[in-house]
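Lab notes, practical 5.
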Amino acid sequence: MRVLGVDPGLRNMGWGVIEVQGSRISHIANGIAHSSGQDLAARLLSLFEQMTDVFATYQPDTAAVEQTFVNKDAVGTLKLGQARAIALLVPAQMGIPIGEYAPNAVKKAVVGVGHAAKQQIDHMVRLQLPGVEIAGADAADALAIAMCHAHHAQAAGHLQRAIARASA
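Output from the prediction step:
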């Protein structure tokens, strides 16, 4: 299973692609889509085009997107929501399933605690993907989101197999 994780952002949208084979997770690619243009519409279009290219290049089977963290700045939160819409739209357009995870759930799955610092996330991603060259903090977060999705998918698979065995 090839998983694309996306850390939505209007200026910088992190992305990371991993391959999952059983319990083995390997790094495929990561990067940051930087928006360009002066107005909001041009920036969103730039992100859309870059993320579409990522999908075309790496052809993930599933995607995972971090949920929006609501802060005190309503305008900032709304703009982040619009960038998040791009992160959801591109995989939906490709017809692949999308998982959504709260920031604390991602941190707990990768680091073990729900309130981990960015440096801890980066460190744990590097430990679990030895030799990875990470494009930046947003890309590290995106890889963590992909890893969280992989862990949840594995757990769901174990549960489904257990239910099938119990009902047989």
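Observations recorded by the TA: Strands lie at 2-7, 12-21, 24-34, 62-66, 98-101. The radius of gyration is 16 Å.
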